[in-house]
Amino acid sequence: MARKRWANVNALYQIYPRSFMDSNDDGVGDLRGVIDRLAYIKSGEKSLGIDAIWFSPFYPSPQADMGYDVSEYCDINPMFGSLDDFRELIEKAHASGIKVMVDFVPNHTSDQHPWFLESQSSRDNDKSDFYTWRDARADGSPPNNWLSIFGGSAWQWNESRQQYYLHTFLKEQPDLNWDNPAVRQEMKRVLKFWLDLGVDGFRADAVRWISKDPHQRDDLLAAHCPDEQSVRSFDDLQHKYSRFWENLFPYLRELTDVVASYDDRIMIFEDYPDGNYGTQEQYLGFYGVNPDVSMPFNFEGLGAKFSAESFSTMVNEFQGMINPDIHTPVYCFSNHDQARIATRYGGTEQARLVALMQLTLPGLPVVYYGDEIGMTNAPIQFDEIQDKSVFSHGNDESVGRDPERTPMQWTGEKNAGFSQVKPWLPVDPISKKVNVDVEQHDPDSFFALYQRLLKLRSQYEILRMGEYEPIGDAGDDIFAYARWIGKEQHVFVALNFSKETRRVTLPHAGFILCSTHPVDYPAIGANGVVTLRPYEGVLVECSEHRLQRDN
Ligand code: GLC
């Protein structure tokens, strides 16, 4: 059966450190705030009950890309606390049975990182080849047509070196040169530093970009784009040469070998579905790196239409493509770059259904802070925007990624109980109703649903590790599947994606373990027929194959 590492972990909870809890009232979240809320995460009486947390970057950084521009890999940004705070956090988290994952940003540093400052100072210094430098073309223009994801050319002119440097993201985020063995050595040293401190894993950021064509050939025009003059945005090119090159998996293997040399540590790769590559090639490539230790996120649900057909196709194709004995699925439906689930899928009832699906599918699901109480994308006015990528996109319509990054809604009081002072991003006014405090006291709340599902996922190995099998003909608008271990244990899941009531036929009768309405479960007939309310989902224990609880 799959997954030897992190075998009992029910799910992973993403904490955006700026927005989780502010302990020192400066308007920005911090590590001490997280320490204070470990009881909410797992150990307390009314806790969410989730077994692992992942921190978006908390390293020293000028915050051009909110910490994804690292200026020192082995320290904590004072705005979040200190290394001693982090040591205390790890110790207390471990004492409560919570694993701790950190973000690892391998593709680029900040332009304020000492490596870059040295590298740009001359063409002949210790770090001169740590980044990708090239001369201008004869007319002074950038060396090739590669584009930055955040808009414009991926090349930035540097006066002191009289050369261009490559940046796939903001110009404040120069790409490291991974073909330089000294860079790879340094990055492995960084991993060891955090592993020695006791972290249990890494989420590796934007990995596809670490290997590029060494000849830096021009990327190709996208099919819809007639000529170079029509290239306006990132999607007007096919990014054949600027990423996903042949050393990608060997380089990732070097990293995961370091992780593998420590007990029970893992690495999750960030990589989005990409029309330029077959998804199968992508997934199997990433799983192939080191299946015992590492796995890619599955982000396909982000683009899925809210329908039984689209979700069942996505899940069934993915489950059919991987080898469930060695590959761990990591289903992820929201994060700090993407709309929250209650916004993306059209409402809180729909989001409850997605939650029940996510927490009953195999693998290691990832929950974004606040999604467990049904937070929605918050309204952000133009003059409140903090996400700089908005401006380099040159798109006045967009407010970027701030709406999904607003402060955690702890209470209905001032600043949602996040801080005594005005927070770095506005608190969503919806926090008066949608908050932890209210929901912890409501047995039918969003939070109560997550709590129930996470508890079941901890108690029953079948939900974490059991086999997956689609149930073909359960009914219109229904996505249904079975999870099983051997011949002995079976559960069924039926999800109604319609806004109407739907009749579902399960393979057997059974007992409801959880419904998207946690206080009021529907009845199942002796023939396995159950009537689901609009957007209702159920997890059913089969009456002939009862479950064994393992903790
Ligand atoms: C990843 C991060 C995103 C960041 C980018 C550059 O996609 O999730 O927030 O802007 O990488 O590091």
3D structure, described in words:
Pfam families: Alpha-amylase. With 551 residues, the protein is an alpha/beta fold. The chain contains 15 helices and 19 strands. The chain has helices at 17-20, 31-36, 38-43, 83-95, 114-119, 181-197, 248-260, 279-289, 308-321, 341-344, 348-358, 389-392, 436-440, 446-459, 461-465; strands at residues 12-15, 52-55, 99-104, 133-134, 155-158, 163-166, 201-204, 220-221, 237-238, 266-269, 294-296, 366-368, 467-471, 478-485, 489-496, 502-505, 510-515, 529-532, 537-542. The chain has a 7-stranded parallel sheet. A 5-stranded antiparallel sheet has the order 13-14-15-19-17. Strands 4-6-5 form a 3-stranded antiparallel sheet, with no helix packed on it. The longest helix has 17 residues, at 181-197. The model has no long low-confidence stretch (mean pLDDT 95).
